[in-house]
Amino acid sequence: MNLDRTHDPARRSWVSSANGHSEFPLQNLPYGVFQRGSGVHVGVAIGDMILDLTVLENLGRIKVGDVPVFQAGELNAFMARGPADWHRLRVVLSDLLDVASAPPEEEILFEQTAARMNMPFYVRSFTDFYASRAHAANVGAMFRGAENALMPNWLHLPVGYNGRASGVVVSGTAVRRPTGQVLQQGSTTPVYAPTMRLDMEVELGAVVGTATEGGGTLTPTQADEAIFGYVLLNDWSARDLQLWEYQPLGPFLSKAFATTISPWVVTRDALAPFRTPIPPKEHALLPYLASDEPLGFDIAMEASLVPGAGAPLSLCQTNAKHLYYAPGQMLAHLASSGAPICTGDLLGSGTISGPDDSSLGSLLEITENGTQPLRFPDGQERAFLEDGDQISITGRCTGPYSIGFGSCDGAIQAAHLP
Ligand code: MN
User: Which range of residues forms the domain containing residue 64?
Assistant: First the structure.
């Protein structure tokens, strides 16, 4: 897509905190939903403030189509409008916040530190892919041996499964340690117990804006254009439950209890300068999936573990550019069967692991299935997550300007004991 004045790195805002090193400069303008008094409002992050779109729409200062889109406490109505309206509003908001405009007199700004963020959109369905080759190869080698690491389908299609939309929660929501069937070592019959192998997965989430009509298919480029924006996503996983339940139909309860997303949806528009080519394909893809377009993203992602007591430990630095399939290809594959694509569908990329040891996106890989525990400077060790541990994922793009995703945080609560 073309860059325009909303991408001009020289532009500054009259919201002074947006200028400088903010994750949310004038060029970003990500959408979120927050609690304001007794209301739930839609807003755009600018510096350390939120521009209140619900109020602006009520005042008649912004208008998208013929009916209000920011009064329902979720982004879905706006996301359904499509790329032309998304872009028009971006231009309007960019100009409104530009230093050349006069700050409005109405109360349209709200402090982020005072805001409680809600789920930004109603999740219609959640599909989790498995699109990082390093991750698929590492996990495959662990469970099936190095020679069977990648299943024969992996290089021909983005492997995925349908997850649980109701388990998706916004950053800051506590995550209860799940319970389930586990086959303990040396036993042939399972027990029902809290997971002992609670893990994180560092992923990128794609948020679908425009729906397909009547099960229509999409090319990767069309699918890319149907994606409204992106969030950081932590696909919490109970590895012991997963190992026992996953054959032959894939993960079920081991990933259904919670999936955390960051509260700000960074738009496809804002990410335009950070496009990257997708990695070359080992086998030519079928025409419906193949693309020469730069549909990938250069998004640096970092995960850290914040223990209940003691200093945080960085777990990995990875990048969305490592994905073998771009989000547009994942969505094109989903649509290729005739499956309906709906506003509010959420697509997880799968754990993003890079080629080296510092870029592994799950504890399963970092600790080699728990055999090589992490060591904190104060002597604490972790094979998997303990109660009270928090995982924080951040994401940043650096180029002509720098933008951030905010933080995707979740802390582990003790299990409800069976
Ligand atoms: Mn996953």
Answer: 5-118
